[in-house]
User: What shape does this take?
Amino acid sequence: MAETEIPDSMKILKEWWGRLSTLSLQFMKLIGLGLRLKDPSYIANSHSFGSSQNESAIRVNFYPATLNKDLEPGQVRCWEHSDYGSVTLLIQDSPGLEVMNRSTGEYEAVTAPPGGIIVNIGDVMQFWTSDTLVANKHRVLVSDDKHLQEADRVSIPFFAMPDQTTLIECLVGRSKYPPVTMHEWLKQKIYSAFKERQFQ
Assistant: This one.
């Protein structure tokens, strides 16, 4: 994002990084308390944001207006996926995110109240909790709402990732998955994602 396009953009993003990283740590501590972990801060303490061992990221996604564009109904803007990390905090300026209902397999629109933030559980959190918390698949499609088609859409996700050296293992008493470091986990997920795309 160029400073000439949005003045003080880097300063703004650094401020958001600080706020969202703090909020994500608070959220993860609450998860630790809810799971009755021996150390409720264990999950949060596995994230040293800003260090060379941590791959957490903030992203700005820009979706241009689609009105009067030659697009197919239901065209994909962001393919269905689950997030690789522990939790994702999402800010969006207009509706667009859809989350799969695991009971029906259908996708449903998700919105936050004004000023609210959407929280997605990531794959690592599902691993840590032996599926007690599940990483739902989500996506973004072209809206069939003319009002939404007329406007650009911006979303800002903050992806909280454990440190690369963190050993990811089940924490709730039943070892459903074999332990793996975050570094190896991320390599496996990225490889699988690219391999899957090759055959679509």
Notes: Helices lie at 9-34, 42-45, 123-128, 146-149, 182-198. The chain has a mean pLDDT of 88. The longest strand covers residues 153-160. The CA atoms of residues 24 and 118 lie 11 Å apart.
